[in-house]
Design goal:
single chain, 38% helix, globular, Rossmann fold
Length: 238
Amino acid sequence: MTRTWLVTGANRGIGLEYVRQLAAAGQRVIATFRDREAAQQLSALASKYPGRVRLETLDVADAVSLVAFVQRLGDEAVDVLVNNAGLYGGSWTSDAPRQSSEGMDYALWEEILRVNTIAPFRLTVALRANLRGSAQPLVVMMGSELGSISANTMGQSHAYRSSKAALNMVMKGLSIDLVGEGIAIVSMAPGWTRTDLGGPAATWCVDESVAKQLDVIAGLGPVDTGRFLNLLGEDVAW
């Protein structure tokens, strides 16, 4: 069955791989990105899969950009919204000191919260009518096991961790608010993945992570709303 997917932050990493695998599987993807100059691989996918990949500029943290995007989308139905766009502020290995108790970059922390927590809430709410146009709408918040409070045994990365923990609360709250509209919402922890954030030593390569995430998503339904899952379909501790 062909579905319409909307993937934010689709120009690299996990988002780009979502577009690649979905388009190859015959799905229709609305792929958003902030900077067209950084979206060359995404543009190549749009050329390879004409009619399947639609490119849209969107800065998820900018209200004006978001409103303009929603207006361009009109009343088009969205079956699956993947709120993937996110920010760490560099890499896990080189930029962690900016999120330490000794060297916290507070401006960065505020920016991370805008991108990772507020923006997914705002976009999801703005697209409620589009999601209601689907027979079985689903919203996937791209979470992280770093947002698990009980699993935090290392400290550090306070800005990123707190943004993802807050995203889980946003997801849970929206799952209650929107259940009457038939919109299911989950958080997905993609695993430690070899992206710009995860680095080369990470457990999962990007294509494996996304393939497993898509397998899990394929089995989700209304009964799963409000869950925090990993790429193996297991519940992650809050």
